[in-house]
Amino acid sequence: DMALRHYTLDFSLSAAVDSASTVPGLLSIFHEQEMTETVHDTNGHGYLATFVGKNGRLVILRVHSHGLVTIDLQCYEDDNIAQLDNLLNALEKKLKVLLNGNVTRVKRLPALIRGAKVDRYWPTADGRLIEYDIDRVVYEEDSAYQNIKILHSQQFGNILVLNGDVNLAESDLAYTQAIIGGGKENYAGKEVLILGGGDGGILAEVVKQKPKMITMVEISFMGSVIDGCRTHMRKTCGNILDNLKGDCYQILVEDCVPVLKKYVKEGRMFDYVINDLTAVPISTEPEEDSTWEFLRLILDLSIKVLHPAGKYFTQGNSVNLTEALSLYEEQLEKLSCPVDFSKEVVCVPSYLELYPFIISNNFGHGHVCKYKIQVLIN
User: Fold this and answer.
1) I need a surface site. Which of 47, 87, 254, 358 has the fewest CB within 10 A?
2) Which UniProt keywords are given for this protein, alphabetically ordered (predicted)?
């Protein structure tokens, strides 16, 4: 595992600077490190030089014409960190002197580790880069539907990552509590349908309340989310995934769309439907050409199997994705039954962003039904 460390050092300036007045003063520092320079033609866009040194070190020095100086240092992970820090410290100190009062901000970021065996970088839903404190991969499989990873984080415990999307960590009881109603629901004696939820968290929490029956529909088993989580996410699921059937629950290893359609045809009804499917559709049904069509289909089918006084819970998307949330609201207007909704905020530790859940109450009777949908944001 020969990963790269990538350091960045940025100087924001109050006015553009001439490279001829700054670069020569830095050269002695590079020469002391036995680095050889190459100056590149930037076609009028400031100054650019690269410096190559021992152990494969590379420095890119750029004096931008609009008032920014950037230094990038790349080295192998096993290089001498103290030496590299000394080099960056010397460059920072010298540049502050050379730029003499022109510096408005100096920013040095922690090193980015590139190409490491264990990937610590997982973006938020709205595309911001997060570095987790992940130190090892505890499980990885490619099921027929998705790539499944369980990664160990020092602060969040094991984290379930599906197709590069952080789904749930062992620290994230707040997620599970939010998607089952935030402690305001009484599941005793109720019929409950869980769509997805392969990590077992929802099932484990709802079972504690002694419902009449929970039916959980998860698309695959062996080499799957269930398989990984029952071994490596036991703080989340306990022992609930060890058996596909219990006193008040059953796990159906099937695609939920045909199951929902069958329940609609049979007139099967539930007091609660909890949709914990992944954000991207993985169903095999041909009619789900897009995420939104899939979402609307699941919503529509779920509401058709919901008792008149039943409730529907699901997750949404990052609160920063305002356009996506607006599109979600549009889907609610296209359902076979009209809906209302409200919003609430919940914080889930490993997400490091606020994220919506949906709670819908069915206030309707007969064929004319109206639902209140509450968006819980975690």
Assistant:
1) 254
2) Acetylation, Phosphoprotein, Polyamine biosynthesis, Transferase
Q: Are residues 187 and 262 in the same domain?
A: yes
DSSP 358-376: EEEEE--BTTB--EEEEEE
Q: How far apart are the first and last CA of the chain?
A: 36
Task: Report the DSSP pairing between strands 58-64 and 68-76.
Answer: antiparallel
User: According to DSSP H, which parts of the chain are helical?
Assistant: 19-32, 81-99, 173-179, 201-207, 225-232, 234-237, 256-266, 291-304, 322-333
Number of domains in the chain: 2
The whole-number pLDDT of residue 342 equals: 57
Residues carrying an active site annotation: 276
Half-sphere exposure of 335 toward its Cβ, with a 13 Å CA cutoff? 25
Cα(255)–Cα(296) distance, rounded to whole angstroms? 16
> What is residue 7's predicted lDDT score, i.e. its pLDDT?
97
- Residue range of the domain that includes 252: 172-362
Q: Are 360 and 324 in contact (CB under 8 A)?
A: no
pLDDT at 308: 81
Same domain, 253 and 336: yes
- Asked if 294 contacts 331 with a C-beta cutoff of 8 angstroms, the reply is no
Q: What are the per-10-residue average pLDDT scores of the chain (378 residues)?
A: 91 91 90 93 93 94 94 95 94 92 93 94 85 96 88 96 91 92 92 96 97 93 83 97 96 93 96 82 50 79 87 72 64 64 73 67 39 42
Same domain, 351 and 235: yes
Residues 87 and 20 in one domain: yes
On whether residue 329 sits in a domain, the answer given is yes
Torsion sign, CA atoms 192, 195, 197, 198 = positive
Confidence (pLDDT) at 11:
95
Domain CATH for 192: 3.40.50.150
